[in-house]
Amino acid sequence: MVVRSIFDSIRSIESVSCIGFRVSGYFLRLKEEDTNTKPDTFIMPRFSCLLVLILATTPLISFAQVLDPTIQAGTTEQLSEHVYWIPDQKKPIIPNVGIVVGEKATLVIDTGLGETNGKIVLDEARKVSKTDRFYVVASHTHPEHDLGAMAFPENATIIRSKAQQQDIMEQGMGLAKRFSTFSPIAAEQLEGAYIRDSDLIFENEMTLDLGGVHVRLIPVGPLHTGGDLAFYVEEDDVLFTGDVVMDQFPMPLTPKSKITRWLETLDKLEAIDAQLIVPCHYRTGSQDLIQNYRDYFSHAQSRVIELKHEGKSDKEITEVLTKELTEKFDFWSDPGRIPRTIAVAIRDLYQ
């Protein structure tokens, strides 16, 4: 009965696009159905999920009850002359928040889940700001990155890319409704939440002059989502990479994602040669984060081609390559994300 209940739990949450469950120290991501992928292209590692859930010391339902996506106030740290961050404390559905302080304005990158977190971020930004002029951006439009903007004052300028605006038009608050099922705390923080209207929409790269410091807003999607953005703080040589470069397995969620495009984007970001890289989850780093992602995607892409030439089925490729990548990149968490990358690599062959 216990095993059957766990399988039922897995099936009931498989439709969620990017759920983070920290179970016994592991961050398990579950997939979203992709109608553009061939039937046997994406193989959900059910047994792995089952094993993790069985070994967990806390039942799934208990974990859901305590999942707290609240950004921790008072933890802001200075990274460089103009750049601060509020680290995610390695907790699910909390972003690394970026704050870039200029003489004329302050830029806030990723505002957290809903008004409660937005107020925390705003309070932290005000502690280090030299002015009450705020620009607000998001690395992408997932709820924990964008919905905190609702807490910012009316005179704050909300900036989004054209691709992000398209994501909002297509998805609306649908993903936020799913997030509200994660825990009672998440539901409470999303009650009454809404997507703040954009004040400025740009299509190509643009630069913000904050007064003594300039930030380039660089469209890099569609990769994790349709509207991924990176942000480069020129004077401080700091690059914010969103979910496009992190210290864990990547998650290509949008059906528009391609391995070749991800590799091209990594080349583009590497050429910036930033001294410090700040992903929107997990630790900061340097060029090693980009190189690790290049190695990962290159290996996945080349091995899919090799295994296809050997006559392997999509299912066999997924099984073989998942094992290979788990072992090769054992320093990352979230191996449950690997089949998603393999699915994209296989799909690329058919397009």
Short structural summary:
39% of the residues lie in helices and 17% in strands. The chain contains twelve helices and 14 strands.
Walk me through what this model shows.
This protein is of the alpha/beta class. 39% of the residues lie in helices and 17% in strands. The strands form 3 sheets. Strands 3-4-5-6-7-8-9 form a 7-stranded mixed beta sheet. Strands 10-11-12-13-14 form a 5-stranded mixed beta sheet, with no helix packed on it. It has a two-stranded antiparallel sheet with strand order 1-2. Helix 10 crosses helix 12. The termini are far apart.
SSE topology:
Elements: H1 2-13, E1 20-23, E2 26-29, H2 46-55, H3 60-66, E3 77-78, E4 83-86, E5 97-101, E6 106-109, H4 114-128, E7 134-137, H5 143-146, E8 157-161, H6 162-171, H7 174-179, H8 184-190, E9 200-202, E10 206-209, E11 214-219, E12 229-233, E13 238-242, H9 259-272, E14 276-279, H10 287-309, H11 314-328, H12 338-350
Parallel strand pairs: 6-7, 7-8, 8-9, 13-14
Antiparallel strand pairs: 1-2, 3-4, 4-5, 5-6, 10-11, 11-12, 12-13
Helix pairs in contact: 1-2, 9-10, 10-11, 10-12, 11-12
